[in-house]
TrEMBL record:
Highest taxon of source: Bacteria
Naturally occurring in which organism (per UniProt): Lamprobacter modestohalophilus
PTM sites of type 4-aspartylphosphate: 65
Lineage summary: Bacteria, Pseudomonadati, Pseudomonadota, Gammaproteobacteria, Chromatiales
Entry protein name: Response regulatory domain-containing protein
Membrane spanning stretches: none
Biological process (GO), any one: phosphorelay signal transduction system
Domain Response regulatory: 16-130
Alphabetical UniProt keywords: Phosphoprotein
């Protein structure tokens, strides 16, 4: 996928758009509006076809009609977000149906267009381009924030002149020193990963941040290191992605990247509270 947020980004780089629209006339109109632009198109007429096409990858954008033969309203949007969580979706609503459009934004769409706007070529191009820009920028900001939290683990070592690591505590990896506890924490973390995926797909509320804070406190209490967190994450991810479809697997992996960084940030906060400035840190089980 072209990187739209770097100084070397060329706006003429073709973007691949999937049009999900059951009206052949509207399909043709949208395609005609985009002729001569840097957006290449392909079209399908049902949600089932869209899901099948998205599973093959190689797309940057989706333009989705919310009124399809096999899907009405927000159901189609929710299903496509689950199928391809990394691809921005712009939805098309009925005439003057702003309320449905705003609800689609709350669910996860990047933008919405009313059907009577699709004859405006400049508006369509701008909406699609801006949707992709917003999507990628938001992901970068979110990941950057989590990475800053994770880097706090290293900064703590500089402030206290104590590196927060297994070697500093004189510890073996948690999976070796206490396999039972490792399994318990792995399973708890796996439940959090599942909840994060459900939140993304169904827009349900789960107290994920609270659960991660509690887990970080438990890990901090037993002097867990960043290496332990990676071990826990990898083991849980292997279990949670076993025997699931490719779309669900991608969703869990994507949510897992954010979740592990958030957990690292909370663990860093724990060490700030309890260990920065401490002159004597006792090894686990000593």
């Amino acid at each position: 996928m072209p990187d739209h947020l770097t100084p070397n980004y060329d706006p003429s780089t073709p973007l691949r758009l999937l049009i999900v629209e059951d009206s052949p006339a509207d399909q043709r109109l949208i395609e005609e509006m985009l002729i001569g632009s840097s957006i290449t198109t392909e079209a399908v007429a049902s949600l089932a076809e869209a899901e099948a096409r998205l599973s093959r990858g190689n797309l940057e954008l989706v333009l989705l009609d919310l009124g399809l033969p096999d899907s009405q309203g927000l159901d189609g949007l929710i299903r496509l977000l689950a199928e391809a969580p990394g691809i921005p979706i712009v939805v098309m609503t009925g005439l003057r149906d702003d309320e449905l459009g705003f609800e689609a934004l709350r669910v996860g769409a990047e933008d919405f267009l009313q059907k009577d706007w699709i004859a405006d070529a400049a508006l369509i191009k701008r909406s699609l381009r801006f949707a992709l820009e917003r999507h990628r920028l938001r992901l970068r900001v979110q990941i950057a924030e989590r990475e800053q939290e994770a880097m706090a683990l290293e900064r703590i070592g500089g402030v206290a002149k104590v590196r927060i690591s297994a070697s500093a505590f004189g510890l073996k990896p948690l999976r070796d020193s206490d396999p039972t506890l490792f399994t318990e924490i792995r399973d708890t973390y796996g439940q959090i990963l599942r909840a994060a995926a459900e939140r993304q797909v169904y827009q349900v509320q789960h107290p994920i941040s609270d659960q991660l804070r509690k887990l970080a406190d438990q890990l901090g209490f037993v002097r867990a290191s960043p290496r332990d967190l990676i071990d826990i994450h990898s083991a849980a991810l292997e279990i949670e992605t076993h025997s699931v479809g490719p779309a669900h697997e991608r969703l869990i992996i994507n949510e897992g990247r954010i979740t592990i960084l958030e957990l690292m940030g909370y663990l860093a906060s724990y060490y700030r509270r309890y260990y920065v400035g401490s002159m004597g840190i006792q090894a686990r089980g000593a």
